[in-house]
């Protein structure tokens, strides 16, 4: 005869001691006070090749071009994207000085319709 002592321990049902306390409805909503996100990582050499990786030396400096000829469309087109946008300096490697001159030259070239302002859709 097995003598299993299975003691049923009925937990004494002293359950909820809380009798209907209404929660204090406090408007403690913290909204919009987010901490400023992580600072941007300083631009490393990412090198994602959307454009060609060009020489990181300014073309105009190497060729000693001081004034950029705005009539030289072929030259300018190398610094204008397909849609007519000027390619930013970090992609072309042109130095700041020459980029500014280049920008002017491109705008002049646009004015005399050598270069498109923007692509038409
Ligand atoms: Zn330069």
Number-wise, the strands total 0
The second-level CATH architecture of the domain at 69-121 is Irregular
Helix proportion range: 10-25%
- Tally of alpha and pi helices: 4
Bound molecules: zinc ion
CATH class of the domain at 69-121: Few Secondary Structures
Named CATH topology of the domain at 69-121:
30s Ribosomal Protein S18
The CATH superfamily of the domain at 69-121 turns out to be Ribosomal protein S18
Using the CA coordinates, give the radius of gyration.
35 Å
Please report which band the strand proportion falls in: under 5%, 5-15%, 15-25%, 25-35%, 35-45% or over 45%: under 5%
Look at the helices and sheets and give the structural class: mainly alpha
Distance between the termini: 94 Å
**Residue windows where pLDDT falls under 50 for at least 5 positions:** none
How do the helices and strands follow one another from N- to C-terminus? HHHH
Coarse shape: rod-shaped
Main sheet specs: none
Look at the structure and give the mean pLDDT. Answer: 76
């Amino acid at each position: 005869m097995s003598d299993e002592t299975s003691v049923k321990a009925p937990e004494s049902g002293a359950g909820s001691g809380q009798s209907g306390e209404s929660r204090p409805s406090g408007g403690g909503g913290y909204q919009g006070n987010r901490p400023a996100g992580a600072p941007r990582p300083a631009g490393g050499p990412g090198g994602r090749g959307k454009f060609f990786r060009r020489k990181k030396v300014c073309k105009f400096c190497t060729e000693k071009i001081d004034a950029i000829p705005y009539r030289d469309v072929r030259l300018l087109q190398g610094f204008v994207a397909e849609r007519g946008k000027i390619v930013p300096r970090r992609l072309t490697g042109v130095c700041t000085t020459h980029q500014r001159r280049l920008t002017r030259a491109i705008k002049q070239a646009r004015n005399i319709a050598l270069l498109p302002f923007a692509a038409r859709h």
